Predict the 3D structure of the following.
Amino acid sequence: MQENLINQDLVYALSATLDGKVCFAAKLSGLYRSGDGGKTWNQVNLVSDESNQPTVTAVTVSLGTDDTVHLFAGIHGGLLISLDNGTNWMAAGLFSPPPFVTALAT
């Protein structure tokens, strides 16, 4: 069987909360979230244009002191941060030239 890689939605990275209940997938088509341990997935809107989400090349999860999920998503040219479970996103100020983020760790 020959694979057609051009039409596939590539997964670049996975991350999850310590209990494994909330998972995130960094994909060619954007960032995806699962609240049931990976059984079902929904796209996370990183930018207001729902039809034009950036490719996410890295993702990591960290818990805040109030148990809020903090997310870090690497995209071409930068890093996006959410401090409220992925509801709102802001760009991190990074050095120039804009980086291509391929890995993140907490």
The beta strands are 11-16, 23-27, 30-34, 42-44, 56-63, 69-75, 78-82, 90-91. The CA atoms of residues 45 and 53 lie 7 Å apart. The chain has no helices and eight strands.
